[in-house]
Design goal:
The structure is a homotetramer. With about 260 residues, chain A is α+β, with helices and mostly antiparallel strands. Chain A is built from 10 helices and 7 strands.
Chain lengths: ~260, ~260, ~260, ~260
């Protein structure tokens, strides 16, 4: 997928070019535009994959940090992930303000993304969704724990964001910067936080990794629920096993398959 | 989807036009016909969506209150929801008598719809179905409770209709006005009632809302069953959270996706 | 679907015509041939429906009593249900001997069918399969009970066939007349019997009914397992409710849908 | 599917022909080439079937012993099973060294295959995967037991490979010959071993049998979990029943269906 001038305009890139060019530390080069092009293509694919794999339904979203501007990120307009196209991708700053909305409506909960990008320089991709397998672990006291190598990234622990602690009685939605900050604080340096009575947020350094983590997070929840039902102690992936496994996988093989299946 | 004269005739609209025109408070205007056309299109889509999303199988039905006549409602002839077309939509009065059956067979349980419309002026759409996830909550004493924001509408409580209380030993079907009244009484002002050993009825102000509630009711039941299996106390959506959330969603984003997937 | 001469030959009908014609009580008339034609079409559809609905996988079978000869029945050659065509349908007598095999291989377990037809004049259709939902109820002491109206036919009770009681240590397969008789004896006058560590047999008066019962038997098992997991007493469909419901349904509406989906 | 010269080259067969021809006990004959052709076709089909039936996702692999050289085996290059084609099949020796890699990347865990072929002359096909149903039985103390005839091959017992016993803290992957040997030792003479926090390995004498065992192993795990949830003692398939059943099935009927569905 490549973008024509009209599509590049729609995501506010051409508009920004003059000032980028004028900048002494001009970050966007022709090579960067190709980069951006590919990243947006992956972001659209990520939306479709999350829908095809059952991680999101009509709701939920995935974003990526702008490769040419660490203080901006890319996220679809308010539409079901399965329906996202290149023309839906918008650019936001860290206050979750759209750079060039062109009349497009933003997701109310874009503050989940902006506030995590603000405090987590290691994070370049964020997923928010409501996979049914995750809700039970958010509303009970049973912590999510890593059952197998594919979900070894959970070994650091999975905190639960209780929105009542941050803001008392709400409509449950993270639709302000303050709530986004509170969620980012609970997430801290972890890859996943559950949100009580709501869903989860997953972060990673790349789009394939945040998609892969979202998929294996869901699988891990279903596996752990079944392991609990069998009864008795459960042998989890240990922190050291997780650390060693982390170095050996990047979901590259699965990413190609997920893209093919989501087409 | 637009309707030609023949199809409008088949749902008893053209037949009624003369008397509607003659009426001093004539309710049906050309704009109303467009309205009706769109509503019937949504009703057909609602049938297909409920089937595609696994909420109904060969059985179950969805109706909408007639936009031009508060005392009439629209409901398919007796056919599987997945197969419903515009030509199957019939008009009924509040005694569940078909205005112009044209030889089409009515669902036996249309009294579920008529008696709810009679006593619930706030309700414009009704779904009846037998989603497998719901039956366990109808045959045990475990009440359905709202697990997450998407099913916050359950916070008002989910009553269970025990047909034996209304009529002793029956064939389990709500196929008389008296049984419909008894069910409507148990439903009271709630959005959902379970029916012991049978299924559920869901009501809302619009077709997208009754379809959305039916889908998230099913998801909530599956989530709650899993949360119960994990053990320990469960943090439900509180009534105040539910009240605040109610104002912020109408399933609009999901409705477009559901329609696309059901095609 | 209609059959040409070649296909009629393949199921041994044309071969039998001379002796049928010669018979004083000649049972097969032109109208009967149309009848048989339709029944075979339904039998092929029944095979495909059971596969599409997940009741059988590569194994399992469905038969129908021959409409022109109470002592014969029709059953596919040994092939996966999903792949059955008209040319695969064979005719068997009550000793499970093929009338005109034409080199086709028979299912080893055809004795399940023959011995039930022998002792149950009310039965005209038999399904045998291994739906995963049923095995747990066959290997534990938890009896299958009717959870809702659609599975009300279970109210008579679901016996479990323990092949060890009949023949000690076997290969688990009902591949002799003696084992078929033992199974039929345990089934007695019921619509369903489970087979320990193996599967189930379902019987009814028609193909749509035996298919419908097989589908709702599977759903009931999954619903009951979930109801048990919720805990506490379970309100079953009572025998009187089941008796009253039995008169009001024949799966006609669902049968049309199942056929459409299985195509 | 047949292979042309180019494809035969790609799997290193033509390259080997001269030395095979020169050998006094030349094992590969024209008939053997046809054999190999068919076997590779089955190996590709096996990959697709395991993906279609949900036994593997983007990860997991299936191999077959080389029919012309007991000390070699065939396995795809490192790609998702669903995407495997004839050109991806590589030949390995028992040290898991590729005979003619042609730049293709090998699965890191190919040592699972090589070390099992080394010590199990009865084994001609190996599957490694991570079916979610299996992980709970690997991380708890609940042993997998045969619930019904289709999984009777489990009656010999299902050992669990604890990689910590073999090598302490690892990245969980069997990516050395030493780890492969340790796994093969735990597998011993059984058809299945679970791997704690990882997955399973399944072996058999043919590709259809290893695929069939993989599918029914998954079904058995789900059935046993449900049987445990129902409570009370469970009547397993006894060793003698398993022995008798083993003689009567080879998945031939299902294999044809699985191939058709995987296309």
């Amino acid at each position: 997928m490549t973008m024509n001038r009209r599509e590049l305009l729609s995501i506010g890139v051409l508009t920004l070019l003059p000032q980028i060019r004028a900048s002494a530390q001009a970050q966007a080069q022709p090579a960067d535009l190709v980069n951006l092009n590919n990243l947006i293509s992956d972001l659209v694919a990520g939306n479709h994959i999350l829908a095809t794999e059952g991680i999101v339904d009509g709701y939920g979203h995935i974003s990526v940090r702008h490769p040419g501007n660490k203080n901006h990120f890319l996220l679809s307009r308010s539409v079901a992930p399965e329906s996202v196209t290149v023309a839906d991708i918008m650019e936001f700053d860290l206050d979750a303000v759209a750079v060039d909305p062109k009349g497009r409506t933003s997701y109310k909960e874009r503050f989940i993304h902006s506030e995590i990008y603000r405090v987590r320089p290691d994070v370049n991709a964020v997923v928010h969704g409501h996979a049914p397998s995750l809700i039970p672990f958010g509303v009970t006291k049973k912590p999510l724990r890593p059952m197998y190598h594919q979900s070894a990234f959970l070994a650091a622990g999975v905190p639960v964001f209780e929105i009542r602690d941050a803001a008392g009685m709400t409509n449950m939605l993270v639709e302000t910067a303050a709530l986004g900050r509170a969620l980012a604080k609970v997430l801290a340096d972890k890859p996943v936080a559950l949100m009580r009575g709501h869903g989860a947020v997953v972060v990673a350094d790349t789009i394939p990794n945040v998609v892969g983590r979202s998929i294996y997070l869901d699988l891990n929840a279903r596996i752990q629920a079944q392991a609990i039902a069998l009864g008795g102690p459960i042998a989890e992936i240990s922190p050291e096993e997780a650390r060693k496994y982390a170095a050996s996988d990047n979901y590259a093989r699965a990413w190609e398959l997920w893209k093919k299946k989501a087409k």
